[in-house]
Amino acid sequence: KFLTMAALAMTVSAGAVAAACDDGEVVIKFSHVTNTDKHPKGIAASLLEQRVNDEMNGKACMEVFPNSTLYNDDQVLEALLQGDVQLAAPSLSKFEQFTKQFRIFDLPFMFKNIDAVDEFQLSETGQAMKASMSRRGLMGLAFWHNGMKQMSANKPLNLPTDAAGLKFRVQNSDVLKAQMAAMGGSPQPMAFSEVYGALQTGVVDGQENTWSNIYGKKFFEVQDGVTETNHGIIDYLLVTSTDWLDSLDADVRDQLMTIVSEVTEARNSESTTVNANAKQAILDAGGVVRELDATQRDAWVATMKPVWEEFKGDVGQENIDAAQAINA
Ligand code: LMR
């Protein structure tokens, strides 16, 4: 087994146990920000790693760096372009610098559930989005699901007016900033790895995320409760650099792409269950979950949906219509 000093140093600094790669194997470093075993993305990344290392032994070798140990999402796309890592799976909200097309996925109440997101992504329009950043050097390989977003704060949130004046952590996305402003909240963009500390110390009052992220990073422990708003989605693009992809031998690329699509199909169909389990785990741990009645839900929709108007030009009315047709 051959491990360069640079790789060793990186492994140590990342605090991860890296698989030692054989000389001549294509090294695939995959950096992400969630845990590995109770999260739709973490489980998918671990399965991908296991299958590549089993089935492509001698040709390729994958090392996953989870939990922001190597890069956070603000850094990882640059690291991909520099060739420091070969795979990443940031949420679709994190591609602001590269494309405005993905803004459709951040618009509140655009998709009624993850099945609707899946259908949209598998459409011709959705599939074309994977290559939409190729001129900028990024190539999407697959959409990976997480789930529906919920809202939490340091006080009960039953109506959107309860959020007025509160500071909410958001991913760095103009749509999400506009959404929080529509509720009268103050949006604070921040890396995922900093959210727990910011909630705990009161730098922000609240946040929005999926059950698996709220559970996986223990946000519920430092919030009054979580309101089941299902107001938006978090999904990912498994992404690489066009340069790296083009540099692979065709047989290596084809085998890798086959494994990627099999892992995608297997894990995407489980993402809703993983999130349901995380919600249950929050309840089991004594966390508070608040449900909305129909009138309350209508109020959230009425407050947030006007945000669409501002971003219609970026995402295209025809795409909004296509998404809405899937919901119907
Ligand atoms: C976030 O920043 O809240 C999420 O994108 C983290 C993740 O990867 O699920």
Automatic annotation (TrEMBL):
<keyword id="KW-0732">Signal</keyword>
<dbReference type="Pfam" id="PF03480">
    <property type="entry name" value="DctP"/>
</dbReference>
<keyword id="KW-0813">Transport</keyword>
<feature type="signal peptide">
    <location>
        <begin position="1"/>
        <end position="18"/>
    </location>
</feature>
<dbReference type="InterPro" id="IPR004682">
    <property type="entry name" value="TRAP_DctP"/>
</dbReference>
<dbReference type="GO" id="GO:0055085">
    <property type="term" value="P:transmembrane transport"/>
</dbReference>
<dbReference type="GO" id="GO:0030288">
    <property type="term" value="C:outer membrane-bounded periplasmic space"/>
</dbReference>
<comment type="similarity">
    <text>Belongs to the bacterial solute-binding protein 7 family.</text>
</comment>
<dbReference type="InterPro" id="IPR038404">
    <property type="entry name" value="TRAP_DctP_sf"/>
</dbReference>
<dbReference type="GO" id="GO:0015740">
    <property type="term" value="P:C4-dicarboxylate transport"/>
</dbReference>
<protein>
    <submittedName>
        <fullName>DctP family TRAP transporter solute-binding subunit</fullName>
    </submittedName>
</protein>
<dbReference type="InterPro" id="IPR018389">
    <property type="entry name" value="DctP_fam"/>
</dbReference>
<keyword id="KW-0574">Periplasm</keyword>
